[in-house]
Design goal:
Elements: H1 8-11, H2 25-37, H3 52-66
């Protein structure tokens, strides 16, 4: 699923490509959430991930907290 940005048509196989704004809003919502809470995911920031492992851990911690699965941080 992608929006209607033209370059997608050049590198996503036509058989696998569906263009629809209705299917991208959830992904954009999560992108916004990550950028809001995690400095390493913000644009134009001096904070960035030096390792994939730390990025993955940060995202997992945020999702655990958002899903009320993390009780140590209130």
């Amino acid at each position: 699923m992608t929006d209607y940005w033209k370059p997608y048509e050049e590198f996503v196989p036509k058989a696998q490509h569906i263009q629809s704004k209705a299917e991208t809003y959830t992904v954009e919502g999560y992108n916004s959430l990550f950028r809001h809470f995690l400095a390493r995911m913000r644009r134009k920031s001096k904070c960035y991930s030096k390792s994939k492992e730390m990025l993955e851990i940060s995202v997992k911690l945020l999702m655990a907290k958002r899903n009320n699965q993390l009780s140590i941080i209130n």
